[in-house]
Please model this.
Amino acid sequence: MNQEQALDEIVKYINGPDGKDPGSVLQFVCDYLRKVDARYSWVGFYVVKGDNLILKQFSGEETEHKKIKIGEGLCSLAVLRNEIVNENDVKSNKTYLACFPSTNSEIVVPVRFHGEPIGEIDVDSDTKDAFGMRDEKFLEDLADLLSQQVKTVASEN
Ligand code: SME
Model:
């Protein structure tokens, strides 16, 4: 994927008529990333609600992990450490919570509001060792861009 172009497309969507709705922005991002990059097999946003992470918008297969107790899985590590978790071989990681048998790697990037993690972007890939430094930087920029949308979605039921 051309990551600069992807950010431009997302900004264009945010500034368009449907981009006024934060939920539709997050859904657009999930669908768009999956469409333009074959490595992005599943893309979703979890938000922090009390002691849990709650799955909001996502693109890809349904997962049973719509609610994750903070403390479990790679998704929890990203908010507990307030840093990126980039696991290039999930099958060798004991903390990993399996969603799809086809997944081989996963990256989880915190979304912050005033420095505090309020949610995260979670990407699963069927490709082993799928995500590198460029993905980390791109997804961090995206997380910064979407902070307000994630905050709003997190406050909704
Ligand atoms: N694998 C995650 C759980 C969420 S699914 O990937 C959609 C984890 O280890 O926390």
